[in-house]
Automatic annotation (TrEMBL):
Protein name: Anaerobic ribonucleoside-triphosphate reductase-activating protein
EC nos: 1.97.1.-
Keyword Lipid biosynthesis assigned: no
The keyword Metal-binding belongs to this UniProt entry's keyword annotation: yes
Cofactor(s) this protein requires: [4Fe-4S] cluster
């Protein structure tokens, strides 16, 4: 099965509890005002991968990570492929965190079997679209106050909120890559 992905970060501490393998899926039909990932909206951009290739990469990192995180774009627009990946990952004891602009209630009341499989294998669902007028960087991993943490398993029930983190990676070719959540105006003062 194929999945269209914009970016993969094989190990980060900025997108969920512990060290995580993160997958930014390509394609989003929500188009939130102020979205930080507008380059992920176009459904035909990014790169197409076989889910087996993604699973192999996760397996190679499994001894170094606590789990995987799906971000977007909108993961539920590629529900079949995401469901296949999260189903396999859970068999190996890794945790699953999924970001979505949809509301949990809408997803859970639907009839799509792949959506049900994702929800059944997800430990934490962060739901709700980004709302610029509710900008709130005080909570980990989210950008606006309306976004909710839905705990779908007991794995992180005792989770204590932590501060947002920002990773800056400087590559050998000179590229600078930032990952995480921070105030963009504050970041601009660094340069």
């Amino acid at each position: 099965m194929k999945i269209r992905i914009n970016r993969i970060l094989e190990k980060t501490v900025c997108e969920g509890p512990g060290k995580r393998f993160c997958i930014w899926v390509q394609g989003c039909n929500l188009h939130c005002s102020g979205c930080a990932n507008q380059e992920l909206w176009e459904s035909n951009a990014g790169r197409e991968y076989e889910t087996s290739e993604i699973l192999e990469r996760i397996k190679k990192r499994s001894h170094e990570i606590e789990g995987i995180t799906f971000l977007g774009g909108e993961p539920f627009l590629q529900a079949s492929a995401v469901a296949e990946i999260v189903g396999e990952v859970k068999k190996h004891g890794l945790s699953v965190l999924v970001f979505t602009g949809y509301h949990y209630e809408t997803l859970s009341e639907g009839k799509d079997i792949s959506v049900k499989k994702i929800l059944n294998n997800t430990d934490v669902l962060i739901d709700g679209n980004f709302e610029q007028r509710e900008l709130d960087l005080s909570r980990p991993w989210v950008g606006s106050g309306n976004q909710r943490f839905i705990f779908l398993s007991d794995r992180y029930q005792d989770f204590a909120e932590e501060r947002n983190r920002l990773e800056i990676r400087i590559h050998r070719d000179g590229r600078i890559e930032m990952n995480g959540m921070a105030d963009i105006d504050e970041i601009r003062t660094w340069f």
